[in-house]
Amino acid sequence: MYIVEAHPTDVWELQSNIHDKVLFRSPRDESERASVAGTCVRKLGIKFPALIDGFDNRVETAYTAWPDRLYIIEPDGRIVYKSNPGPYGFHAKGLDVALQKVLTASTT
Fold first, then answer.
1. pLDDT tens-place string over residues 53-81
2. What are phi and psi of 79, to 5 degrees?
3. Radius of gyration (Cα) for the chain, nearest Å?
4. What is the dihedral of CA 30, 32, 33, 36, to 10 degrees?
């Protein structure tokens, strides 16, 4: 889920953004947010589907998603895994273990 831009040039630009050539000001409306999200997905080589939070930031607020988090959400809406805030608070191993549990439970 693409939420509010974490490091816009008009607020908090990072050297990694300069290196990755993902330099954007804070989007001013939903159209700009969608454009920035699409560009980030392409430039950063993200290989999974990305959704875009509304300009009201409803998803970010509901899931405390900033700066970033990993979730596993069942089709019925039940949260079965929530990482600590990233990028340093989550680890692929924890997500992998949780995914294996979900997959095992779904096959039994």
1. 999 999 889 888 777 788 888 888 889 89
2. -85, 120
3. 16
4. 160
As a three-state string, the secondary structure of 34-63 is HHHHHHHHHHCCCCCCCCECCCCCHHHHHH
Separation of alpha carbons 43 and 34, rounded Å:
14
Question: Which pTM value belongs to this model?
Answer: 0.69
Q: Which residues pair with 82 in a beta bridge?
A: 71
Tens digit of each residue's pLDDT (9 = 90 or more) over 9-30: 888 777 877 887 778 888 999 9
Give dist(CA 81, CA 32) in Å, integer. 31
Is residue 87 classed as helix, strand or coil in its secondary structure?
Answer: coil
Three-class secondary structure assignment of 60-75: HHHHCCCCCCCEEECC
Whether residue 3 contacts residue 65, with contact meaning beta carbons closer than 8 Å, is answered with: yes
Could you give the CA distance from residue 73 to residue 92 in angstroms, rounded to a whole number?
Answer: 16
